[in-house]
From TrEMBL, chain A:
Protein name as it appears in the record: ABC transporter substrate-binding protein
Span of the signal peptide: 1-19
The keyword Transmembrane is assigned to this record: no
InterPro entries the UniProt entry points to: ABC_Gly_betaine_transp_sub-bd
Classification lineage: Bacteria, Bacillati, Actinomycetota, Actinomycetes, Streptosporangiales
Domain ABC-type glycine betaine transport system substrate-binding intervals: 40-298
UniProtKB/TrEMBL annotation, chain B:
Keyword Nucleotide-binding annotated: no
Stated family: Belongs to the binding-protein-dependent transport system permease family.
Domain ABC transmembrane type-1: 27-206
Gene3D superfamilies assigned: MetI-like
Protein name as annotated: ABC transporter permease
Source species taxonomy: Bacteria, Bacillati, Actinomycetota, Actinomycetes, Streptosporangiales
Top-rank lineage group of the source organism: Bacteria
Major subcellular location class: membrane
PANTHER family for this protein: GLYCINE BETAINE/L-PROLINE TRANSPORT SYSTEM PERMEASE PROTEIN PROW, POSSIBLE OSMOPROTECTANT (GLYCINE BETAINE_CARNITINE_CHOLINE_L-PROLINE) TRANSPORT INTEGRAL MEMBRANE PROTEIN ABC TRANSPORTER PROZ
Biological source species: Nocardiopsis codii
Keyword field contains Cytoplasm: no
PROSITE patterns given in the database record: ABC_TM1
TM ranges: 31-51, 71-101, 157-177, 189-209
Compartment(s): Cell membrane; Membrane
Keywords assigned by UniProt, alphabetized: Membrane, Transmembrane, Transmembrane helix, Transport
Length: 302, 226, 268
């Protein structure tokens, strides 16, 4: 039933989207990606602030080079946006190389950036490509409050082995079941938490400060880490692997001009810069679009 | 029919039936949130509805208030209270109360207002006073409608309590939210089936309550209205 | 204390005004979220109504159909919306249908009983009179039965529209959801209260405006139900009966009908 509805539904929905000034997923098809001098692309983002910010940065950098950019931001599920890139409804997506690899092959080993990119390139289906990785990286982490770190004398993940049994770890639901998560923590470090609490990423810092959880799977570019003086436990065995910002593209739809603009952003972006831009969006509540524009101008990219 | 087999396998797996993430524990949590939300809503809405219905004062205000509450997006209420009060049971129960009060309130008010004036006149004529009329006549006559309001509220609450999983508490929503995050369709479907089952049980429960609480003479009349 | 509340309020308003829309960037700001919200909600309600009317007609014609259909609709209503949205995703992606199909199905739980009750309350002698005047089934439906049912159907539409408008926001969890996007992505994910408050208030406002429009539509469509004083006893009775049953239907669905309350004492 769903399929039949979808068949009737999609063209109608597209018409409505166009009528209301939204994105037009069919625009690329007519122009035939790559043919025009400055083509048009649709850039997407996942539904967390950093992903949206990155889409604004990459998108505006392409716009500055004359590329016609449409934004389709805050898409909830990787499954969905991935299939949309494959089908060509999305042409550019700011991804993380490690996460892309884990999605393509959940048994892939953790490695450094080059190893990861080589494996991603191998695993990507026909038509999809990754561009240059940025040095900017946003990894998974296990993070605790300064107080807990002091109390249990914690500085690396290995230090958790003896005390984790009395602590509750909080993180998104998928962290509990994947290798680069709770499973790997036990395998690699012998760390087994007393309890796991599934929480939206946005709530983790608050839950940590309120004592609802004692450790959290925060992203390393989370500005709250600096604001609240949290301690990111080191990962000497590189369990969490490389997570460099790496644009995932539908190759046919992204021309040389757009590729050049994307690569220029990746080259200029650093982890420190990304963290401070995140801080402006999440802590100062500035607009992602404004923050992106300012940074690009400052870097001479827009 | 692969998915059906997987669903059966999911339910048959003994792992689902034990521990803090097992079906009994999740079901108990879900029922607990729902009962708490409904109970608080009933304590707020039934007396208020009886009062406005009986006195005829504030009917417009009540209906407007109920309409306002009905228009509130549940996730907005939930997230706002989480921002103010942190994660836990409080935001979840508040959001459920905002959801459950309007149908109970409106139905209680309408139930009492709908008592035939002739009956009310007769009750006064028999020497009953305000409070006696309220509890001896209006409340029993309004009971079927109040129960329908509570049933509507209960089914909504049972289905909506799933979003509690988004703010870190348990309940059947965990299967749906976790299943989505882990790309585990079977888990998501299993959770949905459990929620629907609970809703059906809730409806049956209210059918039973109706037999128990509604005076036999009123049942026929109420049935024809339904 | 008052100063802080004032600052907070002006902060929220300030955010709302400065992010309302961006000239030259039609996808950004609050306004496009609002129009998306309206599009998703109205589309769902219209499709719901388009399903409910024929389904209701069928249920009135073939009585044994009604109980199983009603049960089915109620069971569907009990499926949590997030689950349905997630289940739609693989089929419909981020097209509007991911939100619209579940929402339209949910409206049936309110609309279907109201359509059936509305059609059933046509008095038998009225129907017979129409037959005697040579009205065929279709003409009878369009000119006699539907007009009598309109107040009850609109009472249902009012409840369904408010419920749908507030529920659209849940679709933001799958990346749709109009004002829900404001609440979730701009607000919750940044732990920032202003977008949440703006999103909630605009949702409520949209619900109220829609409700008012439906009340107006009802007055337009059923001029005989307006407070004219020319009608004799029977007209009055019918008017009162129609209004009372509309109200009863609304109460059954748990509706608030503020204006109905004002008029009934006079009618009694």
């Amino acid at each position: 039933m769903h399929k039949r509805l979808a068949l009737i539904g999609l063209p109608l929905a597209a018409a409505l989207l166009t009528a209301c000034g939204g994105s037009d997923p069919y625009a690329e098809d007519e122009e035939g990606g790559g043919g025009a001098e400055a083509g048009s692309v649709v850039i997407g983002s996942a539904d967390f602030p950093e992903s949206t910010l990155l889409a604004e940065i990459y998108g505006r950098a392409m716009e500055a080079e004359g590329v016609d950019v449409t934004y389709q931001l805050s898409i909830g599920s990787r499954e969905v946006y991935y299939s949309q890139i494959e089908s060509g409804n999305l042409s550019v997506f700011p991804e993380y190389n490690g996460a892309t690899l884990a999605y393509l092959d959940d048994e892939a080993p953790s490695g450094n950036s080059e190893e990861t990119n080589a494996l991603v390139a191998e695993a990507l289906p026909e038509g999809l490509e990754i561009l240059d990785s940025s040095s900017a990286e946003n990894k998974d982490s296990v993070t605790v409050t300064a107080e807990i770190a002091r109390e249990h004398d914690l500085s690396t993940l290995a230090d958790l082995a003896d005390v984790a049994g009395e602590l509750t770890l909080g993180g998104p639901p998928e962290f509990e079941t994947r290798q680069q998560g709770v499973v790997g923590l036990a395998d690699v470090y012998g760390v087994e938490f007393g309890e796991y609490r599934s929480l939206e990423v946005a709530l983790l810092t608050q839950a940590l400060m309120d004592g609802d959880i004692q450790a959290a799977n925060l992203f390393t570019t989370d500005p709250q880490i600096a604001v609240e003086g949290l301690v990111v436990l080191e990962d000497p065995e590189n369990l969490f692997g490389a997570q460099n910002i790496t644009p995932l593209i539908n190759g046919e739809q992204v021309d040389e001009t757009a590729r050049g603009a994307l690569n220029a952003v990746s080259a200029a972006l650093t982890t420190e810069a990304l963290t401070s831009l995140n801080e402006r969006v999440v802590v100062q509540n500035e607009n992602a679009a404004d923050v992106a524009q300012e940074w690009l101008e400052q870097e001479g990219l827009a | 029919m692969d998915i059906l087999n997987e669903l059966v396998a999911w339910f048959a797996d003994p792992v689902q039936w034990t521990g803090s993430a097992g079906i009994p524990a999740r079901m108990a949590e879900h029922v607990y949130y729902c009962l708490l939300g409904l109970l608080i809503s009933a304590v707020i809405a039934v007396p208020l509805g009886l009062l406005t219905g009986h006195t005829g004062v504030g009917g417009f205000l009540t209906a407007s208030l109920a309409n306002f509450a009905r228009a509130l997006p549940t996730i907005g209420v939930l997230f706002l209270i989480v921002l103010a009060a942190g994660i836990g049971l409080v935001p979840v129960v508040c959001a459920l109360v905002a959801l459950a009060v309007p149908p109970i309130l409106v139905n209680t008010h309408e139930g009492v207002r709908g008592v035939e004036p002739r009956l009310r006149d007769a009750a006064f004529g028999m020497g009953m006073r305000g409070r006696e009329v309220l509890f001896g006549l209006e409340l029993p006559v309004a009971t079927p409608l109040i129960l329908i309001g509570m049933r509507t509220a209960a089914v909504q609450v049972v289905a909506t309590a799933t979003i509690a999983a988004y703010v870190g508490v348990g309940g059947l929503g965990r299967y749906i939210v976790d299943g989505q995050a882990r790309q585990d369709l079977t888990m998501m479907l299993g959770g949905s089936v459990l929620v629907v089952l609970l809703a059906v049980l809730t409806t049956l429960l209210f059918a039973g309550l109706r037999l128990l609480l509604v005076a036999p003479g009123l049942r026929a009349a109420a049935a024809s209205a339904r | 204390m008052i100063g802080a509340a004032w600052d907070w309020t002006t902060g929220v308003l300030d955010w709302g005004v400065s992010n309302w829309s961006y000239p030259g960037e039609p996808d950004r700001g609050i306004l496009p979220r609002l129009t998306e919200h309206m599009r998703l909600a109205y589309l769902s309600i219209l499709i719901g109504l388009a399903l409910a009317v024929p389904l209701g007609l069928a249920c009135v014609r073939w009585k044994p159909l009604y109980p199983p259909v009603l049960t089915g609709v109620n069971v569907l209503y009990a499926v949590p919306s997030i689950a349905l949205f997630f289940l739609m995703l693989p089929y419909t992606g981020f097209s509007d249908w991911t939100a619209v199909v579940p929402l339209a199905l949910y409206t049936l739980v309110i609309l279907l009983p109201n359509v059936v009750d509305g059609l059933r309350q046509v008095p038998d002698h009225v129907r017979q009179a129409a037959v005697a005047m040579g009205f065929g089934p279709l003409r009878r439906l369009v000119f006699v039965e539907m007009p009598v049912a309109v107040p009850v159907i609109i009472a249902g539409l009012r409840v369904a529209s408010v419920a749908t408008i507030s529920m659209v926001s849940v679709a933001s969890l799958v990346g749709l959801g109009g004002l829900g996007q404001l609440i979730l992505s701009e607000g919750f994910r940044r732990q920032f209260d202003a977008p949440i408050v703006v999103g909630v208030l605009l949702t409520v406002l949209l619900a109220f405006v829609t409700d008012a429009l439906l009340v107006l539509a009802q007055r337009r469509l059923t001029p005989w139900a307006r407070g004219d004083d020319a009608g004799g006893g029977s007209g009055r009775d019918r008017r009162a009966a129609a209004r009372a049953s509309a109200k009863a239907a609304a109460a059954r669905a748990g509706a608030g009908t503020p204006d109905a309350d004002r008029t009934t004492p006079a009618e009694r």
